[in-house]
Amino acid sequence: NKTTVNLLSRWNTSPLDEGIKSKSVLCAKLLVACGGQTFVHHDAEVLGVINESEMTLADVRKSIAAEVNTQSERRREMHKLKQLHMKLVDDTAEAARVVHLQHRAQEDVIYKLYRSRLAIELPVFMESDLEFHNLYQNLEKDTRGNLLKEVDRHSA
Length: 156
Prior knowledge:
69% of the residues lie in helices and 0% in strands. By secondary structure, the protein is an all-alpha fold. Helix 1 packs antiparallel against helix 2 (25-33) and helix 2 (25-33) crosses helix 4 (57-115). The termini are far apart.
């Protein structure tokens, strides 16, 4: 499959010109190996670096294959990260839903307790409640009074 490597851009530069301009030795070597030509005057020093490079076409191919593998590995890792992100988003949404349900259940329990007989206000505790002798005296008086009334009722 043959491709024309000397097509000119709208600025009248070839792919080799662009490779040299970007100082990409790999790209320039590959294009030269495939018959690439330059149509723009370049600095002799940059051209010398490219021409003096001991890199062969086989080296260029290995470098390109290594870069392709690196890019593929990056894509795979990015895909794994996206999957992990989606899983974390799902887990976070599920956790928020569970917390909401727990909160609602707690509100229901609090409401039921409030409405139950446990929520009836109890009398306030006073220290005088600890004085049992007053309580017994009041009970004795009340009991004697009731007994006397019962005796009076039976005698009559």
